[in-house]
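Table S2 (continued). Query chain:
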Amino acid sequence: MSNSLLTNAQKLAQAFSQRSDEFEGARRLPMDVSKAMAQAGIYRMFVPQTLGGSETSPIVSSEVFETLAQGDAACAWVAFIAATSGSALARIETSVAREMFSTPDTMIAGVFAPNGNAVKSENEYVLNGHWQWGSGTQNADWVLAGSLLTDPLQAADAKPRAHMCLVPQSSVEFLDTWHSSGLKGTGSTDFRINDCRVPSAHIVGLEVDKMPDTPLFQFPNFTLLALGIAAVSMGIARAALDNFVELAQDKKRAGSSAPIAERGHTQMQIAEAEATLRSARAFYYDSLSEAWTRATAGQTVDIEQRRNLRLSITHAVMASTKVVDCAYNLAGGVSVYQSSNLQRHFRDVHTATGHRLITRAPVRLAGALRLTDVAFSPADL
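Corresponding output:
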């Protein structure tokens, strides 16, 4: 299965790379593109096998997202959002989940952040809210909306817990807000839900609902999301380096007859960028492989592995950004034109770094755990 997923991703990346301008102009992915990724099995990677999913290892899924990003970063971004959102089906009662995931092409996408409020009314909840960053939701069959649940019959001091409400796309109002500098094709628009009645069976808790006892589901949703961001960033960086190498064969500096590929300064900078990306990628996959080995052996992913994994994720994103910046700057003035792929890589990777999961906090915490016996919450990793 892993070989077919990667083969499919390579074919899709090549096809999508020819349509990036189309995606950016539409500020979302066309339905045929989303369907192609669904039919390739990409959206099913984190769906339980009992429901027809593949429960793909995060090593393989990272390679899939990285490969897609080399073709088009927006497609890769929507792919990891949809795949991760599909893992919510693991928390739902099996018969209900099978009804939702009625065909292999079913797509779920949404926002985990609990920006909605769902109030209990008999056996349902009435959901209201406004969410940002709804990547891929306009292509989805089901929209995942993070919410706080409240029950009027509970004690006044009872704290609402974060849950995920799964609602049909027809219940969602999409707002035209996605006018971004990068990752334009992701369609990461705001969306709103008003007085939607959600059956209790369509609501799952991040903290309270038990996950299947299989290796993949040892990895929390937010870890899978962060892994996706890093994989996409590394794919963008690889594409930027490859684009620059091709450009450098013919581009000449003003007053020079030699292409910039023959300049010592260019050669040194590109060598360092290559080493930066390969080193970050090695750290990322080494940390991920250690965690996955423990999970497949039936062991808990311990603090050391979680620390290394979160550090490698943030490092991969920051290193990828550095690599893209290097290629962009070395190319000179040509980089600023819309006809240059380098300007899109530059915009895309810097947009990726703005995600709330990519901060310096995990880096600081990793250092603190290495140096001291600092107390921390497992959620921090």
